[in-house]
Specification:
The protein is of the alpha/beta class and 367 residues long. The chain folds into 2 domains: 179 residues, Rossmann fold; 174 residues, Rossmann fold (3-Layer(aba) Sandwich), CATH 3.40.50. Helix 7 links the parallel strand 7 and strand 8. The chain is globular and about 65 Å long. The two termini are 23 Å apart.
Length: 367
């Protein structure tokens, strides 16, 4: 199989979809890997490293899309990339289709097989290709929140951990999943006062156990969320429904009740966001101030640490990429239920229930 890796063109995106080690594994398995020149520069991976691993370097993304049987990316394709896709081509990347009708319609018309990293899901419910980026985003959410809480730029001027005689900041985390756990670890490391809100009782019990009672766990209701927003210095949204649009848990009225200069970081903004007032932002201009509250809505947070993120992503995706390349996409999907759950679109047909529901469409069974 010919696997193509173009350079990411989303603003501020420095990751690349594969490392030289991943290239070598594919080449040794008998496949050809095409990489656009400069694709790895943002992650401090040179063209020479990819060439030594066996990749063929090409100058233009049109060549990549024109020759590849499977296109590997990090972020969802932009309009110019969608226009280059070919019928029957496999597109394997983070898709987040539920948050963009334009992309959804464009990929349907392109007649590709679209597999979303974020919807590959094991029988136990684990999301193996989303997990490494969620771990990074959860940790970065606290770091970015701490940075923007400084007085410069409009923050409350609060130090997360406080100092002797001055209490620490209050960090409220919506969602006790991978993002929530990693945000909690970092917030606790800073010395902050942490509250986790989740709708799953068993999850709350688990979090209480592993955190040894050092965090407050709260069952999620509109009342409990509204109460928590009023005392939060930093509010982190980490709620996920695989493939579907994130539920809106924090309303505009709740934001108006927050302390002036407090910060919200919505990690679920890729899926539409769980905070009503958050809009997608970029690394170049990450924050908007609404009702006196700083809103951080960067849609590709791990791009801030691209070398770490690129290696973590390839470690997770490579087994699935190899399976598709070795078996062909149809047999690979038949052989692995987790990969099958990752399929969003199959040549114009909407097969993922969450994506179909987001647009009011009846899904077509993958079989």
């Amino acid at each position: 199989m010919i696997i193509g890796v173009p350079k990411e063109i989303k603003e501020g995106e420095n990751r690349v979809a594969i490392t030289p080690a991943g290239v070598r594994s594919l080449v040794e398995a008998g496949h050809r890997v095409l990489i656009e020149g400069g694709a790895g520069e943002g992650s401090n991976l040179s063209d020479a490293e990819f060439q030594r691993a066996g990749a063929t370097m090409l100058a233009q993304d049109q060549e990549i899309f024109g020759q590849a049987d499977m296109v590997l990316k990090v972020k969802e394709p932009l309009a110019g990339e969608v226009a280059m896709l070919r019928p029957g081509q496999v597109l394997f990347t983070y898709l987040h289709l539920a948050s963009s009708r334009e992309l959804f319609e464009g990929l349907r018309k392109s007649d590709v097989i679209g597999i979303g990293y974020e919807t590959v899901q094991t029988t136990s419910g684990h999301l193996p290709l989303l997990t490494p980026m969620s771990e990074i985003a959860g940790r970065l959410a606290v770091q970015e929140g701490a940075y923007h809480l400084r007085a410069y730029g409009g923050g409350r001027g609060v130090l997360l951990g406080g100092v002797p005689g001055v209490p620490p900041a209050d960090v409220v985390i919506l969602g006790g999943g991978i993002v929530g756990i990693n945000a909690t670890k970092v917030a606790m490391g800073f010395g902050a006062h942490v509250t986790i809100i989740d709708v799953n009782h068993e999850r709350l019990r688990y979090l209480d156990d592993i955190m040894h009672g050092n965090v407050i766990t709260v069952y999620s209701t509109p009342f409990s969320i509204e109460r928590a927003t009023r005392y939060a210095d930093l509010l982190i949204g980490g709620v996920l429904i695989p493939g579907a649009r994130a539920p809106r848990l924090v309303t505009r009225e709740m934001i108006k009740g927050m302390k002036k200069g407090s910060v919200v970081v919505d990690v679920s903004v890729d899926q539409g966001g769980c905070i009503e007032t958050v809009e997608p932002t970029t690394h170049a201009s990450p924050v908007r101030i609404i009702d006196g509250v700083l809103h951080y809505g960067v849609t590709n947070m791990p791009a801030a640490v691209p070398r770490t993120a690129t290696h973590a992503l390839t470690n997770a995706t490579l087994p699935y990429v190899l399976a598709i390349a070795n078996l062909g996409v149809e047999q690979a999907v038949k052989a692995d239920p987790a990969l099958a759950r990752g399929v969003n679109l199959w040549r114009g047909k909407v097969v993922h229930e969450g994506v179909a529901e987001a647009f009011g469409i009846k899904p077509t069974p993958l079989n």
